[in-house]
Structure to design on (298 residues):
């Protein structure tokens, strides 16, 4: 079985026929047919139904196609690993917390891909703790997370690039003006207590002696903000200053706690990562665009 034959199978499915695949691959139709014949001989089964006007994948062919895609993806990834640090090429799998995916990550990726078009970027979403575990396990090349609330293994490193202050968000018609007053007298719209940012807020609430009212708990920072905007309660979230100022036009935005509490954003990666130069490029681009006052949030 050859990678070339598997790529031919994928091309036939993608472009709809042997003839179309041969044109895209720069092969003769006879060469395409021969590669598929070799696959069928090797597996001792037909993978195309040839009873109709044109061959179509049968159930065994569909099963093989699914596996072929995974094998080819992994093969391309292995090829990329050999030269990725010098050429910015090959498949790159990034982990990111939700808030960074909203902004500025799209701008950063576009900027890097415009300069390095051979970089194939995939993004996985999760909480910081989950993403850190995935980086350690080799399932992600690096991740954008909040500051770790655990002791990292010696093989891992976290590089902070931006600090966001925590604010209390509430509807403008709520009478109270202090964090304690707002949080004690209205339902608490809470960001996930299992998330590292959520743990930071819970610890500070206890230190400040603030007892919150039962409300709702959400695993999305953006959803938490939306709930407070809809007058469903009071939230505590971290925000860059320019976004806090924008939200203050339509709702109460009160600094949370004294001394101020900040959430740091940074890159989590292995110390010996082969993506060293790529990670540096993302780091500096994220640092620049996160501080920009013209980011577009939903």
């Amino acid at each position: 079985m050859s990678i070339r034959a598997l790529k031919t199978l994928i091309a036939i499915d993608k472009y709809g026929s042997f003839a179309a695949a041969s044109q895209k691959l720069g092969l003769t139709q006879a060469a395409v047919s021969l590669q598929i014949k070799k696959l069928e001989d090797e597996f001792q089964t037909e993978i195309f139904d040839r009873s109709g006007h044109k061959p179509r994948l049968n159930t065994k062919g569909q099963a093989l196609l699914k596996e072929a895609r995974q094998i080819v993806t992994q093969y391309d990834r292995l090829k990329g690993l050999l030269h990725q640090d010098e050429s910015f090429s090959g498949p790159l799998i990034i982990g990111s917390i939700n808030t960074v995916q909203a902004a500025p990550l799209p701008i950063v990726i576009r900027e890097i891909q415009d300069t390095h078009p051979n970089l194939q970027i995939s993004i996985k979403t999760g909480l910081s703790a989950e993403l850190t575990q995935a980086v350690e396990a080799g399932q992600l090349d690096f991740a954008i997370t909040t500051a770790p609330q655990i002791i990292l293994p010696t093989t891992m490193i976290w590089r902070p690039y931006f600090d966001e202050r925590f604010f209390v968000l509430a509807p403008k018609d709520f009478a109270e003006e202090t964090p304690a007053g707002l949080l004690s007298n209205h339902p608490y719209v809470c960001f996930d207590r299992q998330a590292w940012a959520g743990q930071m807020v819970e610890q500070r609430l206890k230190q400040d002696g603030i007892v919150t009212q039962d409300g709702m708990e959400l695993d999305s920072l953006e959803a938490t903000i939306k709930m407070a905007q809809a007058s469903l309660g009071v939230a505590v979230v971290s925000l860059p200053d320019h976004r806090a100022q924008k939200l203050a036009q339509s709702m109460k935005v009160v600094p949370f706690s004294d001394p101020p509490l900040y959430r740091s954003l940074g890159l989590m990666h292995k110390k010996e990562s082969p993506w060293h130069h790529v990670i540096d490029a993302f780091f500096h681009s994220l640092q620049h665009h996160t501080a920009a006052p013209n980011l577009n949030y939903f």
Summary: The first strand starts at residue 48 and ends at 49. Residues 126 and 214 are 25 Å apart (CA to CA). The chain is about 45% helix and 25% strand.
